[in-house]
Design a protein that fits this description.
The chain is an alpha+beta fold and 261 residues long. Helix content is 16%, strand content 29%. The protein is built from five helices and 13 strands.
Length: 261
């Protein structure tokens, strides 16, 4: 069997840790699917505009190999790992993903979508309409997932953080708020999270995003987290001219420090 991508997805999630665990919980982060030209896909898209949701089959292009078991983002009590075929893990024998996204509009060969859990530049394998009568089974049993304690938190931006995030987005491909939502909205204080450091006595913490550090405060009673500020992970010496720029982002850090520190 030979499978060739029919297009490419473009969206906010650039790195693996940017990707949401479920697209439905990632509303407000629109992306687009650009289908390949010269394949008569314009005709294939005919009549799709009337559907509110579509199934998108795509390739987990950033992954190699597979694992027979996986640790879910939100494990059920007593189930630290589950079988890969009982999970949505991207590490599969065949790296194929399936996502039900909201279709916003179609312009030519471009499908504008929301609530997608795909990484930027994911190869698209196929697009199918979501049909509630055939695809929705609200009373179906969901195995170990029904045992989950989702521990949902509200993620807010303080005024200063909102200003910084806007500047970062205008000057890079990063969306720090989007990343914080992905990392902190579900069971944020899971002990396995290596990017997180907490100061429980002050109800505050720091979330590492590549070479940046996101500061936040939280209320366990209200289940709310407020993003308050940002710091560079580089020292002054590391930002001096001529010092190696391994990640190619030191100019961004210098600009950030100039504007906000």
């Amino acid at each position: 069997m030979e499978i060739k991508p029919i297009g490419t997805f473009f969206g906010d999630a650039v790195y693996k840790y940017d990707a949401p665990r479920q697209g439905r919980l990632f509303a407000g982060h629109p992306g687009r699917i650009v289908l390949n030209a010269g394949c008569n896909f314009e005709m294939a898209l005919r009549d799709l505009e009337g559907f509110e949701r579509i199934w998108v089959l795509f390739q987990f292009h950033e992954n190699e190999g597979w694992r027979p078991t996986t640790r879910p983002p939100v494990p059920a009590p007593g189930r630290d790992r589950v079988g890969t075929f009982a999970s949505r893990s991207p590490y599969r024998p065949n790296p194929i993903g399936l996502s039900c996204v909201r279709l916003l509009k179609i312009e030519g060969l471009t499908l504008y979508v929301d609530e997608a859990d795909l990484l930027n530049e994911s190869p698209i394998i196929d697009v199918k309409p979501y049909i509630p009568m055939a695809d929705a089974f609200p009373n179906a049993k969901a195995g170990w997932v029904e045992e989950q304690n989702l521990d949902l938190w509200q993620i807010d931006m303080g005024e200063r953080f909102e200003q910084i995030n806007r500047w970062i987005r205008e000057n890079s491909e990063f969306d720090l708020y989007s990343f914080a939502q992905v990392q902190l909205a579900h069971g944020p204080f899971d002990e396995t999270r290596r990017r997180l450091s907490l100061e429980p006595e002050f109800s505050r913490g720091t979330l590492a995003y590549r070479t940046f550090r996101i500061h936040f405060v939280y209320s366990e009673k209200e289940r709310r987290i407020k993003l308050t500020g940002l710091a560079s992970g580089y020292t002054e010496e590391e930002l001096l001219p001529g010092v190696e720029d391994k990640y190619g982002d030191k100019d961004l850090h210098r600009g950030f420090l100039k504007h906000f520190c």
